[in-house]
Amino acid sequence: MARKSKNKKPILYPVVFMIVIAAVFTTALASLNAVTIDLVETQEAVKNQRSILYVFGQDVPEGLEEVQTSFEALVTEETIKEISYYVATENDEIIGYAFPFQGSGLWGTIWGYVAITPDFSEIIGVDFIKHAETPGLGGRISEQWYRDQFRGIRIEEDMGDIIIYRPSSGGNADAITGATLTSNAVRNMINDQLQELLDEVKGDI
Amino acid sequence: MAAKTKKIFTLGVWKDNPVYRQILGICSALAVTNLMLNSLVMGVGLIFVTSLSSFTVSLLRNHTPKHIRMMVQTLIISGYVIIVDIFLKAYLPSMSEALGPYVGLIITNCIIMGRAEAFAQFNTPIPSFFDGMANGIGYALVLLFIAFFRELLGFGSLFGFNILGPNWVSWTLMIMPPGAFFMLAIVIWITKRYLPGDEEKKGGATA
User: Fold this and answer.
1) At A102, phi and psi to the nearest 5?
2) What is the pLDDT of residue B197?
3) Closest residue by Cα to residue A100 from A128, A60, A58, A70
4) Which of A121, A196, B141, B188 sits 20 to 30 Å CA-CA off B106?
5) Among candidates B34, B79, B86 on the partner chain, residue whose Cβ is nearest the Cβ of A25
6) Interval B57-83: pLDDT, tens
7) Residue A199 and residue A152: Cα distance in Å, rounded?
8) Among B35, B52, B60, B71, the residue to mutate for chain A (most A Cβ within 10 A)
9) Overall domain count for chain A
């Protein structure tokens, strides 16, 4: 009997010990989370706001509060047919609408915003907020020169493709060298979705 | 005390470097070394987690029942990793995005558990803290060394500043996963060749 109990591992102490230490750590992390949750959410929101300001062709300020202030001054969020979009108004004049879009890239989903003029005739800007493309290759879609080329691209009724890569005839943008699949994915997602979106909302906005 | 601390640091950073000597933490060393900045943040995160978790494990070592010590260590390590994760999300959101899942994966970084098991179990809190820190620094230095070549050759820049000029043709291979394998292998090869450890010295004497 004595030998048996010697070999037996204690149960109560390890359990209590584990519960206590887990409680201590959980409490510490929960309070840290509670303290920072607002900031984390603000960061997320500001990231989107930065992107929306960019697609509207506005200057994007550095600081968190500056971004929020200029976003609130310029942009309002609206919903139509369950599509939520953003309207930019300057001096009581609408300067454009921005729509979120998403589609599959080479490695994962690409999320972004595209802004168009109020008469639906021109792209104001395109930006990507989240993607998982290869760094240095497809990942270059977030570089300024690539995003900037979509500014001012014409959209016409029944024109077929909106974005065409050079050197194809009628080309209006450059693809990224070594990242053909990502470049094509971006082109296709904007071409397909923008046209569809415009047909959907045109009469109603 | 000072001599002991010095020994801990030489071992951790140099002689028993976790990456090229113990071959630990390879996964993240391959994944985040395409940019200097990513490597630096990852290194700092790891230094923070290894030193504090070694400290805590050592602090609790006499009260922790031996057969559940792994569970306790994992709990402690994940606690600190989550702190790093929350910190990055709140204050360095772009960094948090660039490092992606690798911050969370610090939990499974063998260096931390390795130090907790091999050192913090048997030593007092302060040396354990330094041991964790030394190994974290060793890891960070190797990462920065690899990232130096990968970013320089792959992007022509360092810490995002263009160094090699606009005419530099980037070696795209360097920023893709194979580049990491090549660089890491070269690092391990060079260190094996030119930094003979104790084992090799003994082996050489008898042969």
Assistant:
1) -150, 155
2) 61
3) A128
4) B188
5) B79
6) 999 999 888 888 999 999 999 999 999
7) 20
8) B71
9) 1
Q: Does any domain span residue B2?
A: no
Structure confidence at residue A138 (pLDDT): 86
Which of A22, A43, A178 minimises the CB distance to B93? A43
Residues of chain B found within 8 Å of residue A137, distances taken between Cβ atoms: 172, 175-176
Q: Is B76 on the interface with A (CB under 8 A)?
A: yes
Spatial CA neighbour of B29 closest among B184, B175, B158, B157: B184
Chain A residues in contact with B53 by the CB 8 A cut-off are none
pLDDT at A6: 56
Q: What is the C-alpha separation between B65 and B30, in angstroms, rounded? A: 36
Distance CA A46, CA A51 (A): 8
Per the structure, the complete domain to which residue B85 belongs is given by 17-196
Give residue-wise pLDDT tens across range A110-164.
Answer: 999 999 998 888 899 999 998 888 877 888 898 889 999 999 888 877 667 888 8
- Judged by a CB distance cut-off of 8 A, whether residue B52 touches chain A is no
Among B65, B75, B175, whose Cβ lies nearest the Cβ of A13?
Answer: B65
The distance between the two most distant Cα atoms of chain B, rounded to a whole number of Å, is: 62
Instruction: Check A18 against B72: CB less than 8 A apart.
Output: yes
Q: Which domain holds residue A195?
A: 75-201
**Could you give the ipTM of this predicted complex?**
0.74
